[in-house]
Amino acid sequence: MVLSKNLKNVYSDIRGDIYMRALELEKEGHKVLKLNTGNPAAFGFKMPESIKNRIVTDVEKSLGYCDIKGQEGARIAIRNYHCSKGLNNITEDDIFIGNGVSEVAHMIIAALIGKDDEVLVPAPCYSLWTNLTFLVGGKVRFYQCDELNGWQPDIESIKKAITANTKALVIINPNNPTGALYTKEILSEIIDIARKNSLVIISDEIYDRLVLDEKQHISTAALADDVTIITMNGLSKSHCICGLRCGWLCISGIEKEKKILRDALVKIASVRLCSNALMQLVIPDALADSAYTENMIGPNGRILKQRNVTTDELDKIEGISYVKNLTAFYLFPKIDIKKFGLKSDREFAEKLLDKKHILVIPGSGFNCADNEHFRIVMLPEENELRNAIKSIGDFLGNR
To answer: Parallel, antiparallel, or unpaired for β 166-172 and 200-204?
Structure first.
């Protein structure tokens, strides 16, 4: 059996070797706290009643194929949502609904990138974007995000990474894995780079409704109408329905270029017939139900409380530092590897799992080059998180 060469570099630490070891430990009878993936339902988050009611009421309407772009009512609701965030030159025809952001991300990468074409992605980076580029035969070039500047993208690093083969630039804002929220100034500079180099911007904004500390998310496409920007979004995180696989993309920019992309995406979308029709039924109700998400992130919200517990406990561990996340439910602490006699962040994650049965992902799994970081998913309840961070401290203190 000879496999595709494009698979050579495809890998995800989130469900990689360390995760497989966690499953082995569970089979042996151990309880493993999985802080590897942002899956709210696994930690007791329930779907909104608005979504549940729509599914129960209209389930029969989801039995047939629908428009390959997505149901019209769902696309209109998505258009209205993005218009409310400042995207003024879009229609429902610029929107494609998919089985999660992963599917529409694959569609846009397949439409844009061919053999040896280059995509700029941030480091650290959620591995979806590197893997999709590898799968279509493209090449990844990393630009750095600056921990000393709140994990904002380093503008000079972006400029240096561009070559004659660069076609697209990925922004993850709000960011996974760091939890950073990009400033308007940084986004404007990135847009200017794209404008000068004829790059398509792909802006992954799946966490845009999960912004903490009364901060405000700025949609990249709201800052320019003369640059082609693909905005990615969905309901998996903000409404805790990862399993329903609800994601979409929205094309904005110059109409001539938008049409070229629309036509290409229609070809790709038609191959898979349509996305999950049951999921599409709930989109208008979910986007109208902002209270559900706001309750999670507000002053008494569960996500905010869990973030605060995590940071409070980390503050007690000498040798760990972090940039407090402003969004989502991820924290990306830095560990003093030398202080604790460790070779790398991977060794830390492997030994923590074996000794304490806590699963975290090493920063190197997100292409963080220094091998001194790890990502914590802050979704367990407060007491469980408190005990988990104490266990990490105990593990490090007894080395």
So the answer is: parallel
